[in-house]
Design goal:
Among the domains are: 92-254 and 269-342, Up-down Bundle (Fumarase C, Chain A, domain 2), CATH 1.20.200.10; 351-411, Ribonucleotide Reductase Protein R1, domain 1 (Orthogonal Bundle). Helices cover 65% and strands 5% of the residues. It is built from 19 helices and six strands. It has helices spanning 8-13, 16-36, 42-51, 56-66, 69-81, 94-130, 150-175, 192-202, 217-243, 272-293, 304-332, 338-346, 354-363, 368-385, 389-395, 397-400, 405-411, 414-417, 421-429; strands at 135-140, 143-149, 177-178, 205-206, 251-252, 335-336. It is elongated and about 100 Å long.
């Protein structure tokens, strides 16, 4: 079943009709190139181009008999073309057609994915700018650390998706390689000009050296790029899942009118999109491992990779298209709760200013270890007994020897903590557009 957020054109790429059309395009281009070499009469080429066609059902019926998909395809096309079909597949091996057409389809899939990534980046930029100054607590190890802004999270995700875009562009180039060099890649029965012609017409480049197949490290790199995209989406989704926890509730997935969260508990509003995305990331990562295992084939080729690729390449491209679309919708319609962010920051009783106080003491000439101990002992009192961190510091004689009440107030000013946020935003969003 195709996920409902996936584009029809992505799923359509991998339908049998489209896949066989890609095979036929490679075969006809090879015929054109062979005709230029005088190996196919012009009249025969015209007939091939006019009559070459197929029915998917006929290919399926033939494959049940011959047990070979490319032979079934060629037989079905040959029935349409007639005697001139003897010129089709001249000097080619099955993988010339399979690998070159697969490169075409993966290139088209890449273009859809690249468009998806750019859309996500636009949404993240919009949300980053919207929440640039929305202050919240930053957490390390899940524990309150120092303040950040929600916009900074979005900016960070935007930058990470920018790296995903660059990786996907590289993967698109790596996979945009065709191979029309015969049974073991030696051009024994086909002229290299045929490969050059076919690849140029399809927007591909020829594999400089091949066996019977294009080498599978290329496909593994492509699947690895998808796995990294999925892993980033999972990272973002886990963050949103944590922020939606009842005790936190700083951000929440859109919950529509009439939506229900639980069959048993009518009050539930669950982060189902983020959880869905976390789960699907595991599938794509698993597929990338299978792609890596496809790299090692016997000698000039075996077909242990073939059955795997029929699953992992269509599934992974369709899934990443779905994941990017669903994540974009999730971020675009996110509920953000600044008041809850303020409430959660107050829980720490000012402890998140501890570094600023320590550095202020160091600036007064105190040894770092000594300054650390003065600040930490007051912080531990807050942890154990409660109270306000700044009040305790004001009462600490050792601290007050070096810092006045006014200087302590300055240490607890959020403007100081977040004064470089604008600088970070300029670094992220003033860069040359990808």
């Amino acid at each position: 079943m195709i996920p409902r957020y996936s584009r029809p054109e992505m799923a359509g790429l991998w339908e049998p009709e489209n896949r066989y059309r890609a095979w036929l395009e490679v075969e006809i281009l090879a015929c054109e190139a062979n005709a230029k070499l005088g190996l196919i009469p012009a009249k025969a080429l015209a007939t091939i181009k006019k009559k070459a066609d197929f029915k998917v059902k006929r290919i399926d019926d033939l494959e049940k008999i011959v047990k070979h998909d490319v032979i079934a395809f060629l037989t079905a096309v040959g029935e349409k073309v007639g005697p001139e079909s003897r010129y089709i597949h001249l000097g080619l091996t099955s993988s010339d057609v399979l690998d070159t057409s697969l490169a075409m389809l993966m290139r088209k899939a890449s273009d859809i994915i690249l468009d998806d990534i750019r859309t996500v980046m636009k949404t993240l930029k919009k949300q980053a700018l919207r929440y640039q100054d929305t202050v919240m607590i930053g957490r390390s190890h899940g524990i309150h650390a120092e303040p950040v802004t929600f916009g900074l999270k979005m900016a960070l995700w935007h930058e990470e998706m920018g790296r995903a875009l660059e990786r996907m562009l590289r993967a698109r180039d790596v996979i945009s390689v065709g191979k029309v060099s015969g049974a073991v890649g030696t051009f024994a029965n086909i002229d290299p000009s045929v490969e050059t012609y076919v690849c140029r017409k399809l927007g591909l480049v020829p594999e400089l050296v091949a066996t019977q197949v294009v080498q599978r490290d290329r496909h593994a790199e492509f699947l690895s790029a998808l796995a990294l995209i999925a892993s980033s989406i999972e990272k973002f989704s886990i963050e949103l899942r944590h922020l939606q926890r009842t005790e936190v509730l700083e951000a929440e997935e859109y919950f529509s009118e009439g939506q229900k969260g639980s069959s048993a508990m009518p009050h539930k509003r669950n982060p189902i999109s983020a959880e869905n995305l976390s789960g699907l990331a595991r599938v794509i990562r698993g597929n990338s491992v299978a792609a890596m295992e496809n790299v090692a084939l016997w000698h000039e080729r075996d077909i242990s990779h073939s059955s795997v690729e029929r699953i992992i390449i269509p599934d992974s491209t369709i899934l990443i298209d779905y994941m990017l679309a669903r994540f974009n919708k999730l971020v675009d319609r996110l509920f953000v709760y600044p008041k809850n962010m303020e409430r959660n920051m107050a829980i720490s009783k000012g402890l998140f200013h501890s570094e600023t106080v320590m550095l202020a003491l160091v600036a007064k000439g105190l040894a770092r270890e000594t300054a650390y101990s003065y600040v930490q002992r007051n912080a531990m009192t807050v942890w154990k007994e409660g109270g306000d961190f700044k009040d305790l510091l004001n009462k600490d004689r050792d601290v007050r020897k070096y810092l006045s009440s006014k200087e302590l107030d300055a240490c607890f000013d959020l403007k100081h903590t977040l004064k470089k946020v604008d600088y970070i935003f300029k670094r992220v969003f003033k860069k040359k557009s990808r």
